[in-house]
Amino acid sequence: MDDIKLLDTVERYIRGEMKPDERLQFEQLRKSNSEVDQLVVEHTLFLQQINHFGERKTFRSSLNDIHTDLTEQGKIDSMKLKGKAKIVYLWKRYKRVTAIAASIAGITALAISALVVAVAPKNDGSNVKDLVHKVQDEVRGIKNDQEALKKDQKQIIDKINNDSKSVINTPIRYNGTGFLIDGKGYLITNAHVVKNSKNIYIQNNKGDQYKVKVVQLDISRDIAILKITDKNYKPTNGLPYGIKKSGIGLAEPIYTLGFPRNDEIVYGEGYLSAKTGYNGDTLSCQIAVAANPGNSGGPVLDQNGEIIGILSNKEINQEGAVFAIQSKYIYNAIEELKKDTSYRSVKVISNSSLKGMNKQQQVKKIQDYIFMVKGD
Known about the structure:
20% strand
């Protein structure tokens, strides 16, 4: 096998595009050929670096949007950011965060190299210790910057909720989709759907509207958790669908429900086309289904009525490619939310009560728990 064909085979393996028998043969080749195995590791890290670079650009763009929004509202003066302004330009503050995010794969490679050197009989132990110390220092720096980033995400949440009005009477700028994860009034959607909002409310397929607030925001994973604050909302005891903790196999059928239109819920049908997202991104998976911007934040369900992902248009930058954030990250977002004792009661069901039903029956039971998310 020449180098070009081998590299193509490695990419298909990383992206999950191999058939089961081909994948098994390739994994056996990895076990028997250390050079092939090393190529897989190195190419995976390379794809991750490319993905982190894309995330860096997206993150920078989001910070610029926030800065522009605050400037337009007159809350900051761009000409006076040096010295007197209380709000620091976020991109300048977090240059190091984005730079480190782009080099995480490189740090991982250094760590792996350190382990290899550690088990080799002829290497100098002091060099290994120095390398390990450097890696540990970088990791500590990343953790510190992540904590700082969380604080600023909380500031964004506070800004959204504090600016909210009891009645929305201004034109709607955009809409997305969200779905209940707890019958007490907790929903999940994409962070990019709500992060620049002043007022947010949701609307079901019957036209009922409810005011919501943002209680958890994870910009890096594009996940937001909302809480219905409207006194007219009546909590429900259970949800018909469950949220799956693991993925599904290639070519397995999936379907989506969302609000690409302003007047009704829309059903879409397709299949899982890759277990990873753009450039091997392990946060998301690729699905073959028609999607429009209003679908962002909507559920992706398997044939048993279990949610396997959140549809996200954040990385749709090539024709026909649609991505969904893997459902296991919903659990991560909820665990982060529960660190605030006010939300300890949030409970997510992992098992679906829709198994064995046909699609029409499933959709009939699910659609009342899917909402259009609107903001101005």
